[in-house]
Amino acid sequence: MRREPALFRDIVAAALPDRTTRDGSETAHGLECDTLKWASLCSATSRFVRSCPELWTYICLHWPTNTIAACIAHSRRSPLYITIETKGLGKSSMLRRDQWSNFLRKNIDRIATIQGTIHDWPNTTLAAALNTPTTRLESLDLHIGNSTQIKQLFSGYAPKLKHVRLSAPISYKLEAFSSSLEHLEISIGPHNRQAKALRQMLQHMDRLKTLVLVGSPELGEMTTLPQPKNPITLRALRTLRIEGMGDSQEHYYKSLIRMKKSRRGGKKTVNAA
Known about the structure:
- It is built from 10 helices and 11 strands.
- By secondary structure, it is an alpha/beta fold.
- The chain has one domain (about 55-270).
- The strands form 2 sheets. It has a 9-stranded parallel β-sheet with strand order 1-2-3-4-5-6-7-9-11.
- Helix 8 links the parallel strand 6 and strand 7.
């Protein structure tokens, strides 16, 4: 540990779960502060782990207040990676939900990623916190349920936001982030299925490289969509992926969204899954 501190730090980091990606299978019950476990092994390990700010940057908001406080203290000013999971919460976590909002507002300019699920959560303070402008956020990966009060994200100001993966029952004004977005994955349903809604959102996304459209169950019950007029051309787009849709719906969105022809013959991909 003393002779090879960088190696030991890498070993600890590799042993920690990857909190930067989410496959939707985890619930709040399965997320714990593994860094704190390493810090409690022995005095030598504790001193070393506490001296590495990057090992304390992953925070799940349902953790006990003292655990989150330890992460904030030991992470110093490093960027934070936040998980919000409201599924399967116990009573004690539910009682702390207003603290989540305070945490987000207080630390919003340290947060680099936000991911998780906000499911049936009629809490206006959390909605207000997620509408706080942010200068640091780079990635947003959220599944938002029907009963939430989240009407807008970050007041339309997140100049470093590059990656958005969003499943929600309403349309958000993601065009506010058009100057920075490079990857966008959104669910398509009754709220945004029409060309007008997508055109308004996408038309100024000049840096968008990857676009994924995911059909919702409600979309599968709808009638055939008409042939779109005035297709949207995205000049930086390299990959368009369509998932969970029928043939007619897939054809509609492929006709609606086009990629600008590459002058250098760059590889572009249009596919369905």
